[in-house]
Amino acid sequence: NNIQGFIRGIPKAELHMHIEGCIEPDMMFKLAERNGIQLRWDSPEELRAAYEFNDLQSFLTLYFEGCKVLVREQDFYDVTYDYLAKAHEENVVRAELFIGPQSFTENGTPLVELMDGVLGAIRDAEKAFGISAGVIISTHRHRSEADALEMLDAIMRWQDRILGIGMGGAEIPNPPSKFVNYFRTCRERGFRTCIHAGEEGPADYVRQAVELLKVDRIDHGNSCLSDPELVAELVEKQIALTVCPVSNLKLNVVSSLEDHPLRRLLDAGLQVTVNSDDPPYFGAYVNENLLQCQAALNLSVDEIVTLARNSIVGSFLPSQEVTKLT
Ligand code: HPA
Ligand code: ZN
């Protein structure tokens, strides 16, 4: 009906999507064959049927296994380009994509292959579709701070082409406080920063991210609601939350979308955005996330407009570009 067409048509940004979490099962098999890798599923259908998760860790185990098919520059190019083509169809005008290089360099892939593939696909998709896109380097919180600092040094040669630095992986027991030096170094080198926090972790992890790491954006952030003073601080500092509702549902962060905190986050005045996280794994790209939330929470047209506007305002675009798009 009307609101569904409105959701599909409205220009939006996607700020929380992992390239290595966006390998469609057909692509997984194509890349495995190209690289001589034996998968433990017999068909793309069988692989898709394996996308059943209990929690973040059960997802991460499969996600890191899937990373093994991304080896050469062309592999990174193909996955990134396919996502941007799909995003363009969904009227995503701005896409800020995470990639976690540690998953690939540990298997012997040179960083230059990863960066050339991702940046090449972004350049070509920008030309082909008029979409605006960039990459955020996401380091792993289950590894050490020294490992993160080593990756930071390695990516410096691409500094001018990187939007910012993020962090993902197993949230508990790896609080933001583990990475104070790393995030300070990122900021000193001029990078914007964000971190996954408050997905499975408590409000205190979100507080640490804001107060100790001084990040510009929080990825997820759901659990902040249990700390009203923290909510006030997030509102005051205009820190965007990149919420991923269907991901939350599939990883049992919420028991149903009807129970999802999205509306409560909006009502608190937070700069909430809706994102897909790892769309093939969770069965929903960004428009499907918005459609399912609209149906479950009875979101109004005004609320959809707010979410789309927040996504543009919350992006790492320069302010004059934001003004043009809002
Ligand atoms: N959380 C933590 N790490 C991740 C996620 C997530 O939702 N998606 C991909 N890596
Ligand atoms: Zn994520």
Automatic annotation (TrEMBL):
Xref: InterPro entries: A_deaminase_dom, ADE, Ado/ade_deaminase, Metal_Hydrolase
Organism whose genome encodes this protein: Rhodovulum viride
Cofactor: record remark: Binds 1 zinc ion per subunit.
Class in the EC hierarchy, top level: hydrolase
SUPFAM superfamilies hit by this protein: Metallo-dependent hydrolases
Recorded coiled-coil stretches: none
Family: Belongs to the metallo-dependent hydrolases superfamily. Adenosine and AMP deaminases family. Adenine deaminase type 2 subfamily.
CDD domains in the cross-refs: ADA
Cofactor entry: Zn(2+)
Catalytic activity, as annotated: adenine + H2O + H(+) = hypoxanthine + NH4(+)
Annotated EC: 3.5.4.2
Domain of life of the native organism: Bacteria
The protein, known as: Adenine deaminase
List of catalytic residues: 199
Residues annotated to bind substrate: 278
Glycoprotein found in the keyword field: no
Pfam families for this protein: A_deaminase
Record: residues binding Zn(2+): 16, 18, 196, 277
